[in-house]
Amino acid sequence: MRLLQFFSIKFCLLLCLGILIGYNFQCSITIVTTGFASLSLLVATTFFIKKGSYKSPIFNITSYLWLVCLGVWLVIIHNPVLSPKHYTSLVSEFSKTYSIQFKVQKRLKPNSFNEKYVVDILGVNSQKCTGSMLLNQQKDSATNFLIPDQLYLVITSIDSINPPSNPNQFNYKAYLKRNYISHQLFADSTSISSLKPMEPSFTGMANNLRSKIVLSLKKTGIQEKELSIISALLLGQRQDIDPQLYKSYSKAGAVHILAVSGLHVGIITLLLLRLLSPLKRLKHGPLLIAIITSLGLWGFALIAGFSASVTRAVLMFSLLSFAHLFQKTSETFNTLAISAILLLLFKPLALFDIGFQMSYLAVISILTIYPLINSLWRPKYLIIRYPWRIFAVSFAAQAGVAPISILYFHQFPGLFFLSNLVIIPVLGLILGLGIFTIGLALCNLLSPPIAEIYSTIISWLNQFVTWVSEFEAFIIKDLYLTPIQTIGLYGLIFSIYHAITSKSISNLRLIGICIISCQLIWIYELNQNQKQEFVIFHKYKSSILGLKNNYNLQLSHSNHPELLGENNYYDYKISNGISNICEQDIQPIYKLGTQHLLVIDSLAIYNFKGLQPDIILLRHSPKISLNRLLTQFKPKLIISDGSNYKSFVERWELSCKQKKVPFHNTYEKGAFILNY
What we know:
The protein has 676 residues and is α+β, with helices and mostly antiparallel strands.
C-alpha cells in the first residue's frame, strides 16, 4: 500500500477509472468539457487558497475528481466521429457506391479470402475528410500488397461491420470500435487504383526497411516458415505465420514470443545494458548508458513498425532504463505508472487492449512475486540455480496473467515452464544474432552461410515448440471466467501477496474476505446459468438449434456430425458452463414454456391439427406462400436461419413488413435467443 504514496500511481488509477466511465456511459461533450473546466478552476483555486498545500483534504478530493473527469474527457475528445471532417458527415446512405481516396495505415492478418488493411480515409467523392476503415482486398492471382505512403482510389460501397453471428463469440465489431473503426470496404485488385506517392512517413520508412530486410533474407534461401517466424520475432509482422505453426506455439504456451512486446524489448534492453556496462566508469556513465539504451530501443521500434505493443514496451523500458539509475523497486513502479499515463493520454482506449493489460500485469507480477518465490530457495550450483530462476520468473508472470488469459482465451498451457526453460535462454541468442543478421542484410553483406545458421536455429525452435504442443493432455482447456470473477481472483492474489509481505496475521482477515467474496461471486454466476434457453445458431447453409436446460445442451442440427463445426457453439458452451451435450434431429414442433415454435423445412409440411404456433422458423428455403402462412397462423415472429437462400429471405422479409410481423434474419441479426 506504500506505493499509493506516489502521485503517479494514484494519477494512473484514477485516470483508468475515468476512462472506464467515459467508455461505458454515453456522456455529452458539452457537459464533460464544462465539468472538466470547472474542476480545473476549482483545483487551482483550492491550491492557492491553501497556499500550495498538497495535504488539504479539499484539494485532494477535488484533484481526484479532476483526474477521473480527465479520463472521461479524453475518451470523448479522442473520438474522431465528433470531428466535422469525419467521413460519416459526408455519407448519407452507406449502401450507395462512393469514390474513396485512402492510404494504408497498417496491414492486418489475412483470412482465406481477403487481405486486410486498416486505411486512413482522405476523401469521399472528391471531398476531403478524415477517419479510418477496414479494407478487405479480395485475394486473386493479381493481388499485390498495398503499401504506406501511397495514395489509392477505390469505388465501392461502405458497409457496417457485423456483430458476432452467435452468442458469446469474440466481438470483432466492438474490438474495431475501440480502435475508432466502424465501417469496412470490400474491393478486388482491379477496382483499386494507385494515384500518386505521398510524402514519406515513419510508417512508410519502416515498411520499406522491413521489405528490404525480408527481400535480402529471401535471397539467401530461407524457407517460408522460418522467414515468417523471423519476421514476427524481429520485425513485428505476424501476418504470414502458418496457422498450424501458430496454433502449436499457442498450445506450447510460447505464443507470447511471436508478438514483439515486453519480453523481446526487455531482453534487448539487457543485452544493451551488458554491452554498455564499461561506460559505468565514466563520470556520467550511467546516464549515458540510459540514453544510448533508449535510442537503441526506439531504433528497434522503428524497424518493428511502431506497432502498439512495440511502442508500449519500448516506452516502458526506456523509462525503466532511467529508473534503473536509482536502483529502487519503488522508482520502478513509479516509472511503470508514468509510462501507462503517457500511453493513455494519447490513446485512452488502449486500456482495453489485451496486450496493454497483459504487459503491465506481467511486469508488475515479476517485480512483486518473483522476489518472494526466488527467496524460498537459493541453490548453490549454477546448473540448478538457473532453471530455478527461470521457473520463478515464469511462475510469477503466469500468476499475474493467468486470470486475464483465461478470461480472454479459455485455456491455460500447463507446459509453459518447459517451453520457457528452453526458449527464454535461446531467445536472447535468437534476438542478438537476429539483430546482427538484419544489420548485415541492410548493408547488403549477409552471406548465405550466416543466413543458413540463423535459419537452422529458428527451425530447431519450431520443431521444439511443435513437439511440446503435442502433449495436449497438459493443455487445460474449456476454462471460463467472467470479468467480475477475474477481478475477484486478482483481489485474492493481492490479499495473499499483502499478507506475506506485511508478515501480519491480521491480514489473514483480508484473505478470508476475498475468499468469501469469490465464493459469493461464483454462486451468483452459477445461479445465472441455471436457466432454460432456446437458441437458433447462425451457420451458412445449415441449421443448428440448441435447447439449454441448466448445464445440459440438446443440439438439433441438419448436418452430419462431422460437419457440425464446434466453432459455432463452442463459446456458448464454455460461457454457460455446459457439461453435457446430446444431439438429435430437428423436430417439427418445439414447446418453449407457454409458446410453440413451428419448424418449416424444404418439404413445406406444416398443417398439424390444432396447432397455433407463436413462432415460425423457416429453414432450407421452403417453397411456400408466406402471405398465406401469415394469414393462416398469425404468428408473433418469423425467423429465417443461415440455411436459406438470400433471395428467399429478402422476399420473406418484405412480406413480413407488409403484414407488420417481426422478422428475425440470422444473416443480419445473428443467432436468435429465447429465455423461457
